[in-house]
Amino acid sequence: MNRIQLIQEIFSKTDFTNYLEIGCQKGKSFLPIKAKNKTAVDPVFKIPIRRRLKWLIKWPSNRKNRYFQEESDNFFAKRKEYLRQLGHLDIVLVDGLHNFRTSLNDVLNSLNYLNPKGLILMHDCYPPNAAAAYPSEFFPSDEEIKNIEGWADEWCGDVWKSVVYLIRKYPDTLEVGVINTDYGLGFVIPKSAMKERDFRIDEKLFAEIDKLTYEDMMKDPKGTINLKEAGHAEKIISKITSGSK
């Protein structure tokens, strides 16, 4: 089960209405999702017109989509009123810049608006190899790629470190782990109503986790990122759908 299937299954079985996707770019996962209110954030949208038309025909409600062409930090800083008007975010997909700080910021910012019964998913949390896990602020440059052994044009970066951080920082507040499917689907589920929503980065913990390497994580992925089998997606769906009723 990939991220699109998981997200759609939850929307189809709940009264959820609000979907946010950070890192939409070409719209491959954003446009197919059927939800009442869909919001996309990306600094540079590159959605082909044919793809827009295809999914507009298949799901006419796509005409109501909101697109914010800006960096995610700017979105959360500038669009607070828009987010308040939505009421809450039911499902968030974090798939923007594949680096530790950006992905963590996206999750923490999203938590401020998340439905207590909702879900945050993070893509690319279980890189298939060390080359795909190459840590970089942006997609590796041509010069960097020349020096990355085993490079196969797959880049997950070090998003997985955000999972480690969330597990360590919020053990009593959040249920966090990674489903072993679709390059690793990180999941973040509130354990409580989250009355305290002061989700600022603990720089000391961040620096500690940032020192970890892909090899460190792979020594014990179950212990480090709470890696779950692919079938765990069904358990997530069951948990979310039963809790939303």
Provide structural commentary:
- The protein has 245 residues and is an alpha/beta fold.
- Helix content is 38%, strand content 17%.
- The protein contains 11 helices and 8 strands.
- It has helices at 3-13, 49-58, 72-78, 80-86, 100-111, 142-146, 160-169, 203-210, 214-219, 221-224, 232-243, and strands at residues 18-22, 37-41, 66-68, 89-94, 114-122, 174-179, 185-190, 227-228.
- Strands 3-2-1-4-5-7-6-8 form an 8-stranded mixed β-sheet, with helices on both faces.
- Helix 1 (3-13) packs parallel to helix 11 and helix 5 (100-111) crosses helix 7 (160-169).
- The chain is globular, with a radius of gyration of 17 Å.
Short overview:
The protein has 245 residues and is of the alpha/beta class.
Work out the helicity level: 25-40%
The quaternary structure here is single chain
Low-confidence stretches: none
Largest sheet, in brief, is: 8 strands, mixed
Please state the CA-atom Rg, rounded to the nearest Å. 17 Å
The strands making up the biggest β-sheet line up spatially as 3-2-1-4-5-7-6-8
Strand tally: 8
Total helix count? 11
What shape does the CA trace take?
globular
In N-to-C order, the SSE pattern is: HEEHEHHEHEHHEEHHHEH
Distance between the termini: 23 Å
Q: Strand content of the residues, in percent?
A: 15-25%
Question: Structural class of the helix and strand makeup?
Answer: alpha/beta
Question: Could you tell me the mean pLDDT?
Answer: 94
